[in-house]
Amino acid sequence: MSETLPALEAPNPHPIQLVVTDDLGRNRLTVLLRLILAIPHLVWISLWSFAVGLAVLVAWVVAIFAGRTIDGAGSPAPRRSEITTSPGQPR
What's the pLDDT score for residue 43? Predict the structure, then answer.
């Protein structure tokens, strides 16, 4: 039971190798500048998210009270795939 198994060798080693010679040290100023440059993007994403959330909320309220969605909202695919009450009758 004490016999050792031979080491497994990869039959085809990967042809690409990556050698990192950088010490990965970063200047604190450049890290701070990255954060400052990210602020406008975060503001833009926040505004878009708020606008989309508001539009979804308005569409939901309209759908609840009117019984249908706003014309032109969403893709036309669900309208084409509605189940008709009698076959052969276009909707």
Answer: 92
